[in-house]
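Our platform keeps sequence and structure together, in a single record for each protein. Nothing more is needed to write down the fold, since each code stands for a local backbone conformation. An entry from our holdings is shown next, in its original layout:
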Amino acid sequence: MNDGNHSTLVWTPSLELGVGSLDRQHRELFGRLDRASELLTGDADAGAIASPLRELVGFTAMHFDTERRIMQAHGFPDSAAHGDQHAELLNQLRRVVAYALSGARRPQAPKILRFLGGWLARDIVDHDRQLAAFLRARGVD
């Protein structure tokens, strides 16, 4: 049951990139982050949160791999730096999930949730928007 501290992570139209495959995966990431948020601020035990958090890491890795393949296929000039940013974000997410699964998650849940939502929104706004503009200029939607 939720203790009332759950901060819903909401996909907004301002995050749309105009590249369907990326937008669909970003919306899915927001949904998975929201579910993780609900579990972390609720009274679910470590066993109940382990699978969704691990699935979040797996889906995030798959999404970043999708972007990597798209960047390679279309010759995105900033693909190395973009990939490095993804690697760092994925490592941070893995550390946050490991921390959350360690049992120390309750007092730090709001901080963890701000981090999770913040990194995704920043990645979309700061990095993926450049990639999307590059792709749209080449007719990819």
Notes: The domain at 18-137 is CATH 1.20.120.50 (Four Helix Bundle (Hemerythrin (Met), subunit A)). The CA atoms of residues 57 and 93 lie 7 Å apart.
